[in-house]
Design brief:
- By secondary structure, this protein is mostly beta strands.
- It is 11% helix and 38% strand.
- The chain has 5 helices and 22 strands.
- The strands form 6 sheets. Strands 11-3-12-18-15-16 form a 6-stranded antiparallel β-sheet.
Length: 268
Amino acid sequence: VINSFLASGLPISASSIQYLDGNDWKLTGTPIACNFEQGIDYDDKNGLPDTPAFSSLECCQICKATPGCARAIWNGPDYNRCYPKSSSSVRKTSTSNNWACEPTNTGKTVEISANVPGDVITDLQRAGLIDDPFYELNFLTQSNVWAGSTWTYSKTFAWETQFDENDQEIALLVVEGVKMGAILSANGVQLGVLNDQFKRYTFPLSKAALGVKDSSVELTFEFQSGINCDNRWMACTGGWDWAPYTSTFQSAAPTFSFGIWKSVYLAH
């Protein structure tokens, strides 16, 4: 792991800036395949144990990991319980705020073009993989596409040559803003874990440390829902009095989209 440090908005001193922004990034992920329906319940005599779940997507993930579970019921944000159901369970309508989720066998890995600055939901909508998230209940029923996968931004670029007094090629990688938790790597070398939307991250790089021989560098930002962000993201992200409340959470706080929301560049 290369030595890294944080800068709190202080000016970056450089002789030149190599911006990595643009629409030539790639976004790769494998969405969890789940079908969701509201107002549905299942009678089941097999007695699979229920468990806490903060969203219908988490309930679907629990079902996929529970032996004998074919579908599950999440009873909404007021109760936050997941009830796994067997394949012999009997479907019925319900007047409660239940969400039925049924995982499919496999999800397909997809690769689409992405924008930086930007976010995952916007890129998925642009690629036609989801509908308008603010139309009706799409922000709930299609959340498995963006929230149920490890999504990775990647870009390969040519390092613009600069030298220090020891004839070593060096640069400062600056990440102005990342929303939600991501692991940043360059040429397979992990640089750090980014988990604070409000901080600028900087990393001193050298060609020698990254093994750069032909000026080609690949950057990857691997977003993982399991990275603890300690609520360091915009408070209205998952809902406010003017925005719908989502069904995805971290530490009981609602979440929504994520991505590289500010510029990325090399300071030479």
